[in-house]
Every structure is written in structure tokens, then in C-alpha cells.
Amino acid sequence: MKHPLRAAGAVIIGVIALALMAGIHSVAAHHSTTMFDYSSKLTVDGTGKELRWVNPHVSLLIFGTTQANDEPTDWLLETTSPSVLVRLGWSRTSLKPGDRVRAQINPLRDTEQHGGTLDTVTLVESGKTFGTNNREQERPNLD
Question: Which residues does residue 44 pair with via DSSP β-bridges, in sequence order?
Fold first, then answer.
């Protein structure tokens, strides 16, 4: 005869395993990128204010403009995860506050907001360019 506590333990372990698998699926689902206009490219020239090196997305804050005569404003640019950026040659110190930068971005669809997804950023002084490969990171979910 089976012991009732063993049977209950097996059920609890099964429920925990299912919960963990469900959690892994939700993390993989992530969020949509439809807020970005991938048919449009902008160049933001300005000064780096902050590189936020955090999961799930590193972001870059630039005080800059897309037009030479416009008043500069803050642009918040989303990238991919720190681990992907490291594989692409980035580090948490690649960009420092005060660096003059030129960023190629896909802007937000809401043109009232100053933001987008970063494609490349170039340090003006050295000419070094860092890419993000954002669109390719999403590609498996687009097919």
C-alpha cells in the first residue's frame, strides 16, 4: 500500500515542475516591438547622458536633436539585453556621460514622444560605432 504523503509529495513536485515550465514560457514571450516604426530612420546628434545597463533592456539617454536648428531634448533609446550587447562588443562603460554621439534609431510611432529603438551609436570623437542588432533579435518572432 502506498503511503499518502508520498503520493501528495509526487503531486506537489509535479505542480512545481509545471509552474516552473510555465514561468519559462512567459519570460520567453517578452513584449511587442510594434511601438517602433521600423520603416523610418532618424539620426539623433547630441550628448550621452546615461547608459542604463540593466535587464531586460539596456537603454541610452541622449540630450540631442534630429534637426540642426531644433532645440535639444532628451531621447530615450531602447536596446537589447546586456548579454547580447556584450557579444556585440559593448561594455557598461562603452558610452559615458558627456560623450558626443550620433545615434541611428527607429523612432517611436508616437511622434510626440522622443524615443525609439537604437540601431547604432557612434562616438563622435573616436568614430567608434556600436550596433545593437535589435531587429534581428526580434526576427525569430516575426516569421
Answer: 103
Mean of the per-residue pLDDT values of the chain: 83
CATH number of 42-142: 2.40.50
What does the chain look like in DSSP terms, one character per residue?
A: ---HHHHHHHHHHHHHHHHHHHHHHHHHH----TTB-TT--EEEEEEEEEEE--SS--EEEEEEESSTTSPPEEEEEE---HHHHHHTT--TTSS-TT-EEEEEEEEBSSTTS-EEEEEEEEETTT--EEE--HHHHHHHHH-
Structure pTM? 0.72
Cβ-Cβ contacts under 8 Å for 139 (sequence gap 6 or more): none
